[in-house]
Amino acid sequence: MRDHAVIGRKVAERGSMDGLVRDLGCPDRCVAAAEALASGGEVAAEAIVRGLTDELSPVQWLDAVPVLQHIGDAAFDRLVQGLLDASTTAEAKVRVGLAFTRLGAGFLEQYVTAMSHTSAFVRCQAVVGIRLCDGAGVSTVPALLSLLGDPDPEVARQAQDTLVIRGKEIEASLVPLLQQIRRAGPG
Predict the structure, then answer these.
(1) Are 47 and 37 in contact (CB under 8 A)?
(2) How high is the pLDDT of residue 184?
(3) With bands split at pLDDT 50, 70 and 90, how would you rate the model's confidence at 134?
(4) b/e string for 89-123 if b means 16 or more Cβ within 10 A?
(5) For residue 126, what are the contacts with CB-CB under 8 A and spacing of at least 6?
(6) To 10 degrees, what angle do helices 2-24 and 41-53 make?
(7) N or C: more exposed end of the chain, with fewer CB within 10 A?
């Protein structure tokens, strides 16, 4: 009997979170919904990502990002899963991808880790996320350089573009690394 009660609570919680996610898309209810979702942790992050992958959901990535930022690591992990799950529809890919890549510099370490993901789509989106971080800087250079030889040409191109765009910020660390690669490889 106890298992049924737990399952019932989880179903009710999921429905409540889904309702709050829908409210993020309503101008008169979005502030209250964002506040409630921000304290909802992983369950809220899962509901938000589910809303982003649903093309009929009124929630927009721009409304979801501040809430996901507040939730933190659990939101990042859910977005990675959302990128994998959304890879079947173009609109879902775009919506989840926009939220994922706009989390900001507070998620720089997670973006660097995601650049070694088995999915080329996740790696590519992580590189874009780094490119969009103000002050991405030196810590990302080794990981970006390793992606220049990525087997997926889009990932390699995004890494190259990011190095070029962030060039002035990372020049001091980039040049010695490139010289070392030129001398010792790989390359």
Answers:
(1) yes
(2) 73
(3) confident
(4) eeebbebbbbbbbbbeeebbebbbebbebebebbb
(5) 111, 112, 114, 115, 117
(6) 60
(7) N
Q: Amino acid letter at 94?
A: V
Distance CA 11, CA 153 (A): 42
What's the pLDDT at 169? 67
Asked if 155 and 127 count as a contact pair (C-beta separation under 8 A), the reply is yes
Residue type, 92: A
Q: Please name the residues in contact with 14: beta carbons below 8 A apart, sequence gap of 6 or more.
A: 43, 47
Mean pLDDT, rounded, of the chain:
85
Neighbours of 125 (CB within 10 A): 26
List the one residue out of 54, 55, 62 whose CA is nearest residue 27: 62
* Predicted local distance difference test score (pLDDT) of residue 44: 95
Rounded to whole angstroms, the Cα distance separating 75 from 88 reads: 21
Contact assessment for residue 70 and residue 48, using Cβ atoms and an 8 Å cutoff: no
121-130, 137-146, 153-162, 175-184: least confidently modelled range: 175-184
Q: Please name the residues in contact with 72: beta carbons below 8 A apart, sequence gap of 6 or more.
A: none
Q: How far apart are CA 6 and CA 175, in angstroms?
A: 57
